[in-house]
Design brief:
Order of helices and strands: HHHHEEHHHH
Structural class: mainly alpha
Helix content: 55-70%
Number of strands: 2
Strand order of the largest sheet: 1-2
Number of helices: 8
Shape: elongated
Radius of gyration: 21 Å
Oligomer: single chain
Number of domains: 1
Largest sheet: 2 strands, antiparallel
C-alpha cells in the first residue's frame, strides 16, 4: 500500500507540473483574443479598470514568441516517464495534443495579421476614402516580416500581389 501511495504522490506531482499548460486548453481562445485586441494583453483579476489599448505589431510579436517558447518546451518533454520505478506514463498523446492546441493559438494571431496584411495591400492597390479603416491596419511590410519570422507562409494571392 505504501508503494501505491508513493506512485500516487509522484503522479500528482507530474500532473501539477503539466498543469502549467492548462490555460491553453481551458481558456476561451476567442474571449482571450478579444481581450488582446481591446487591451493588447490578456486580462487578469488585477486589471479591473484598464484603458482600451489596441495591440501593436510588437504585442503580436510578443504573443507569438510566447507560444513559440511554449511549443519548444513541450517538444522537449519526455516521451515516457517512469513513476516510482514501475508505472510507465506515456506523454506522447498529451504532447501531440498540446502542440496542436498551441498551434491553434498561434494561428489565431497569425491569421489576424494575414487578414490585416491582405486588407492593407488591397487599400494600397485600390485606395478607399475611409481613413478610419486605414488607421486600423498595421504597416504592410512590417506585418509581412513578422509573419515570415513566425514561420507563416504567405498565401499565393498575397505573395503575387506583393510582387507587382
Amino acid at each position: 500500500m505504501h508503494k501505491l501511495l508513493q506512485v500516487k504522490e509522484e503522479a500528482e506531482f507530474l500532473r501539477a507540473e503539466l498543469d502549467r499548460y492548462s490555460h491553453l486548453w481551458q481558456s476561451d481562445r476567442k474571449a482571450v483574443f478579444q481581450e488582446f485586441l481591446t487591451y493588447s494583453k490578456q486580462l487578469g483579476p488585477e486589471d479591473l479598470e484598464l484603458e482600451k489599448t489596441p495591440p501593436t505589431l510588437r504585442d503580436f510579436q510578443r504573443e507569438i514568441q510566447v507560444l513559440h517558447t511554449l511549443s519548444s518546451e513541450v517538444t522537449y518533454l519526455d516521451d515516457v516517464i517512469i513513476l516510482h520505478g514501475w508505472l510507465q506514463v506515456d506523454l506522447r498523446p498529451f504532447t501531440a495534443s498540446l502542440l496542436s492546441v498551441i498551434l491553434d493559438w498561434k494561428h489565431m494571431y497569425t491569421d489576424f495579421l494575414l487578414e490585416s496584411a491582405s486588407k492593407s495591400l488591397q487599400q494600397e492597390i485600390q485606395p478607399v476614402g475611409d481613413d478610419d479603416e486605414m488607421s486600423s491596419s498595421f504597416p504592410l511590410m512590417e506585418t509581412i516580416l513578422l509573419l515570415e519570422a513566425a514561420g507563416v507562409e504567405l498565401p499565393e494571392h498575397l505573395a503575387a500581389q506583393l510582387k507587382c
